[in-house]
Amino acid sequence: MCKRMVLLSALCLFSMLAIIHLVHPATQAIRVDSRSPHTLDNSSTEKELLILEQQWIDAFAHGDAQTFARFLADDYCSINDDGSFTNRAQVLVAVKAGGISVINTDEKIVRVFGQTAVINGRGHGKGKIGGVEREGYFRYTEVWVNRDGRWQVVLWHGTTITQR
Questions:
Q1: Cβ contact 120:141 at 8 Å
Q2: Alpha-carbon dihedral 57, 31, 111, 18, rounded to 10 degrees
Q3: Residues 142, 57: contact at Cβ < 8 Å?
Q4: Do residues 34 and 106 lie in contact, with contact meaning Cβ atoms separated by under 8 Å?
Q5: pTM score, two decimals?
Q6: What are the tens digits of pLDDT across the range 6-59?
Q7: What is the DSSP letter of 152?
Q8: Strand partners, 151
Q9: What's the CA gap between 142 and 6, in Å, rounded?
Q10: Which listed residue, 109, 142, 154, 164, has the most CB atoms within 10 A of its CB?
């Protein structure tokens, strides 16, 4: 009986994924790895999102809260490594405080689903947080939404990983 339930669950999941693919056939992915200039797709939307993401990251690393804020949706939130939530106002306070000196990202995958996009990647950050010098590696997921012709980040989630 248990094996039958597992098989039925797997079949349902597979069916749902197939239906999603049929409903969203325009969904495309682009892979970017700093070690390789090759991508799987040259879509202008994916390229635009990668450029916007880099501007967003640069604003964070330079403590430029005004530029950083332009990329954040009003309902932005992040889920941090410890499981805590940070809203738009809280993250802007952290950006203004500065302290992050290096943020590098690679192994990016961009997927676009109409007016929503998901970016996954790996990052390395370094800086002084709370007076303590810190450095770490992380995997992250960002959700971007195109509202009124403008891409904005609505969600960021990061998980610490061991060094390469």
A1: yes
A2: -160
A3: no
A4: yes
A5: 0.73
A6: 222 332 323 222 222 323 333 334 444 433 333 444 489 999 999 999 999 999
A7: E
A8: 146
A9: 31
A10: 142
Bridge partners for 110 per DSSP:
30, 119
26-161 CATH, one of 3.40.50.720, 3.40.50.300, 3.40.50.2300, 3.10.450.50? 3.10.450.50
Query: Which residues 6+ apart lie within 8 Å of 53 measured at CB?
Result: 105, 108, 119, 142, 144
- Which residue reads 């993401």 in tokens? 53
Token reading at 104: 């590098």
Give the number of other CB atoms < 10 A from CB of residue 135: 11
Which parts of the chain are beta strand (E)? Answer: 28-32, 72-79, 85-87, 100-113, 116-129, 132-147, 150-161
Q: Enumerate the domain spans of the chain.
A: 26-161
Answer for the pair 91, 97: CB distance below 8 angstroms, yes or no. no
Residue 92, token pair as written in the block: 């802007």
What DSSP designation does 38 have? -
